[in-house]
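Submission sheet (multi-component)
Chains listed below:
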Amino acid sequence: MGPLIPNGIIPEDWNYIIAILIGLAFGYILEASGFSSSRKLAGVFYGYDFAVLKVFFTSAVVAVIGLYYMDYLNWVDISQLYVHPTYLWAAIIGGMIMGVGFLAGGFCPGTSLCAVAIGKIDGMVFTLGLIIGIFIFSESFSALEPFFEGSNLGNITLVDTLGISPYWIIFVFTIIALVAFAFSDWVRSKVKKVFY
Amino acid sequence: MKDKKQQNRHVYWNPYFGGFLLGLLILFTFYMTGRGLGASGALKSSVVTMVNTVAPTHAQNNTYYSKFIKEGESPMNNWLVFEAIGVLLGAFLSGAFTGRLKLKVQHSPKITSKRRLIFALAGGLLFGLGAQIARGCTSGAALSGMAVLSTGGFITMMAIFGTGYAVAYFFRKNWI
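Outcome: structure written.
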């Protein structure tokens, strides 16, 4: 039963080879979806291109339905999967800083790597900025540590937070995604086209 | 008009198709490794490695760097670093097949290259900082988090997009 590598079904030696192959597919999908272009990415915030919203939510819905279905079939044990921990205020403030960074820079870390790979100089400068940002965070860690380690709610999921069945959460999430897709198409039809 | 057509040569995948494949990839990654995808982690390893090479004592005395330094093993010896190498290769291949490999600064015709690069640097800096505070970026925290219904993943996703919409007005000249 999955996950395969942690349970020793596929030997640990394969881990890095699988990492490169997964990365290869990740980079290919992002670039082919147009995520190496900052102007396409930024479109989601101005209503002229909703590729980010569509790719992002389609993939989240496919992944979460798939994982819970595989758990139902006993192919994977969902309780063994790594759940990103919730440090409430760090998640909110960190996300807000990333939001401003996105509007200023037009990329996120994964998409900037794709931009670097196809020769976008703005992507390279953004990546340099990422490195400087990580460096600043690390150097000022002792000052930020109480905030960074504070408000730790553990590895919780929406099932714990809302106290309802995961199947209902996934169902509602899927409906929200579908409504968002329809709404985004409507907005796009009202907004002036931007060519890039 | 023909020029404009040439400029708009961005024949990308249908976003639902791309999203569907990305969803399958996230599924496969969790099935294989028990964890999700990531992007900023590899850059963090790079920073740790650089600092540890230039100033090892300083790195070992810093509470944050020292979390990622192990005796006799490079911080680059990390799953996310190998994954990031794959991302670069994959994006390069996609760009090569579609004729998108080109050294250039992409920016709105309303702004200069210089302005674009200054904002890219500042934006990258903020994104790097924010991704460390939130323990992951759009890939590691938001996308992979949402795939396992992580509360923190949803919160980070809403914080990124919500703030993005809130400040979009101030950056409009750069994009539209």
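Remark: The mean pLDDT of chain B is 92.
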